[in-house]
# Entry
Amino acid sequence: MGLVNNPRTVTATLAAAFVLAAGIPASASAPPAAVSHPPAAAPTTAAGLDRYEHQSLAWKSCVLGPDDDTGQELEKAGARCADVIVPLDYADHGGRTITVAVSRIKATDTAHRIGSLLLNTGGPGGQDIGDPPWVHDAMKDAGGRYDIVGMDPRFVGRSTPLDCGWPTGSPCAFWDRPRERPTVVRHDLPALMVNATGDPRTPYAGATAMHRAWPSSRLVTVDGADRHGIYGAYGNTCADNTVNVYLRTGRLPAADVTCPTTGPTAGTRPPRAGG
# Structure
């Protein structure tokens, strides 16, 4: 499932069902749905994290060598890359550090700039550093209003590697049972969610359950698609346009949207790999 939060600070998971919510890797006007919550306390920097949260990034070419196709695509799109220093263990702020590799296409429509859009296609283990170019294209005229940021999550791709000596590329088979308590959704969230009814990775029932938990959210349903990645990847004009209007205006649809997989709004672009 994909989610898009506030186009002012937008954090989107684009390869799965899609969710955009207020506060995503982008920035824009607040969504219209009014939700009553206790006033939030002013944000504070956790003790010891100041040096990480206020670091100055050294932006550079994304090309690592002559065979670096990802870097060349980023370079062609005008992206620059950097390494963000983070703690290996957030319980030990002064201990060993690692880097998280990021890429960025800066907003070109600076007069109407909304904010930053951080891409996270999920996984675990999914690389996103090469995604800004195709996401920028999918956003059409809204693309120029955002700094579009891709990243390779901790220990993935160009970020600091981790080798536990496991005989498989996926750590999932060796994970212990969760040590933290289950996440409980206690408040509403005016997010835009996109999910296909036949999503093989994030079942549609999960999207509808989350939609019920967030009464102010809107759900874009791609009916009849057996597909995980939708926005900008499946070629459904109805879904792509709905997301782009939200990214451009910051306003959620007045009601949920159902997009067919056939007909004039279905689109004809071949699916991207990985969905």
Observations:
- The domain at 2-30+57-164+187-260 is CATH 3.40.50 (Rossmann fold).
- Strands lie at 2-5, 9-12, 18-21, 80-87, 97-105, 115-119, 146-151, 192-196, 218-223, 257-260.
